[in-house]
Amino acid sequence: MASPSKAVGRTQAREPTYLEALIPLILLSALVGGSVALFGLDAMSGPLQAGMMLAAMAASLIIMRLGHSWDEVAEAGRRGVSSVVSAIFILLAVGALIGTWNMAGTIPTLVYYGLLLMQPHWFYPASLVLCALVSIGIGSSWTTVGTIGVGLMGLATFTGVSPVITAGAIVSGAYTGDKLSPLSETTILAAQLTGNDLYKHLRYQAWVSIPAFLIAAAVLLVLGLSNTNVASDAIIDSELMALDRIFWITPINLLPLVLLIGMSMRRMPASLALMTSAIFAAVLGCLTQPQAVLSVLPTDGVTGGLGSFIKASWQVIANGFHSESGIQQVDDLLSRGGMASMLLTIWLIIAALAFGSILDEFGFLSKLIAPVLLRAKQTGNLIATAVLTPIGLNIITADQYVAMVLPTRLFGEEFKKRGLASKNLSRAVSNGGIVTAPLVPWNSCGAYMSAVLGVPTFAYLPFAVFNYMSPLLDVTYGYTGFKIATADGKPDGDASDAQEPVAARLDLTRP
Fold first, then answer.
1. Cross-strand partners of 486
2. Ranked by mean pLDDT, which of 155-169, 345-359, 461-475 comes out on top?
3. Could you give the CA distance from residue 338 to residue 344 in angstroms, rounded to a whole number?
4. What's the pLDDT score for residue 493?
5. DSSP 8-state class, residue 146
6. How many CA atoms lie within 13 A of 2 on its CB side?
7. Residue 156: which of 455, 449, 462 has the closest Cα?
8. Which helix (H) or strand (E) holds 298?
9. What distance in Å separates the CA atoms of residue 47 and residue 39, rounded to the nearest whole number?
């Protein structure tokens, strides 16, 4: 049933037919597919965003044809976009952080020490494990990717291993930790939505997450051992010398990372923690890397005074750090960041959320999901539907929170009627809603990962093994009955035993 806040001021309008509910999705598929076909991986530079906006406009016309006013449509879009404001703040803060961490030598120092320690053939599984440990510790996949992940991507370029496979390993590791950390807000939300104890949810989650992680580690290990395209010692030595020439390499440069991890573990809001670390890095860089800081200013504008350092830091926060060392790998690593670098990603997120939110609020999604749920007559089918629905919502609404909240509302009563423990549902929406979000280019998570790592989502997707093995394993468990818990010792229910039709419990007139 629609919340009171959504229902206020709504005109009398009819519900969409199945065809009307389906038309926006068909159009979206055509526009997204067309943009990728015409522009390839460059589609995210603008064509994909334009396609999403056109799909949102077409959906708006159908909604108005149903009897709703433009003001109602605009208000629904506003609510959808407002739900992602915190993600936009995080994106801007990460852009600033990447720029100042490069300027202060934090990322170069991580790469420098990594070149001395990391072996190319073990690089992919090592990246997976490192990101998983960090993500479990701080409870944030986004922060893990925006910090450790960026350093690993630079390190991959230097050692000659594939940045694309490395990006997949980073995303897999970050989301392993996100699913298994008691500090993760999405994990906490999944438990709360289904009324489960957090640690009970985590233990039940581990039956899928740990096998998926081990499979990912095995695949990445094979890919690493079979990789023969690694940089020679001479090339690595020249890259080390270039970093050492541009920056003063010292453990002091890692203080911004230590500060960020400390603030994250104390549960400071992500955007504030990231921005605080970025500003701290800018100040630290002015003290430890003065030449690197002043190098971002035109030669004739450098005085070496306080004003020059403030201007350079401000410039880097806004537009990123730029290097002209003469070594391409070094310059590609360092010439990144700045809030401006995230604007295309923010445009994509806004366009996708505007489309998804109006489909959700005006009952299109409930209309399409109801028939699917009616056909899920066996436990395996119900588990599969509970996993696949969040995946579809990640694609349609571009928001992992909608992909988690809506299925728990639609399927909760059905799991209860069939005697299935609610932790089955919390695990299903986690495996369908959380881990698949970074595999969708226009989802806020996929757009973020692509922007921060510098690798298109479709490129790293095949190597984000954990992220697609988790839902596959959950569906397999559903059909085999392995680790499918019942409530109060009741046997698995069957749709034929239901006294009340599923459709009767769904408010298809939403909103």
1. 420
2. 461-475
3. 12
4. 40
5. I
6. 16
7. 455
8. none
9. 8
Token duo for residue 65? 């044809």
The three-class DSSP label of residue 140 is coil
In angstroms, rounded to a whole number, what is the distance separating the alpha carbons of residues 430 and 470? 9
Query: Which residues are paired to 336 by β-bridges?
Result: 321
- Do 247 and 105 meet the contact criterion of CB atoms below 8 Å apart? yes
Distance CA 42, CA 309 (A): 36
Is 7:46 a contact under the CB 8 Å cutoff?
no
Question: What is the average pLDDT value for the chain, to the nearest integer?
Answer: 82
Say if residues 341 and 320 touch (Cβ distance below 8 Å): yes
CA distances from 25 to 130, 368, 393, 489 (A): 39, 11, 11, 41
Please state, in angstroms and rounded to a whole number, the distance separating the CA atoms of residues 178 and 264. 13
Residue by residue, what is the 3-state secondary structure of 470-496?
Answer: HHHHHHHHHHHCCCCCECCCCCCCCHH
pLDDT at 410 over 80: no
Write down the residue that tokens 């490129």 correspond to.
459
Percent of the chain with pLDDT over 90: 22
Q: How far, in Å, are 67, 111, 196, 261, 485 from residue 414 at the CA level?
A: 32, 51, 16, 41, 15
CA separation, residue 66 to residues 15, 24, 39, 370 (Å): 7, 14, 35, 20
- Residue 486 — φ and ψ, nearest 5°? -105, 160
How far apart, in whole angstroms, are the C-alpha atoms of residue 473 and residue 407?
Answer: 19
Helix axes 465-480, 163-180, angle to 10 degrees: 50
Judged against a pLDDT cut of 90, whether residue 189 lies above it is answered with: no
pLDDT higher than threshold 90 for residue 174: yes
- Structure token pair of residue 59: 């959906």
Q: Which two tokens stand for residue 438?
A: 């970074």
Token readout for 126 is 């090592």
Q: Choose the weakest-confidence range: 197-211, 240-254, 439-453.
A: 240-254
pTM of the model: 0.72
Which of 147, 52, 43 is CA-nearest to residue 456?
A: 43
First to last CA, the chain: 7
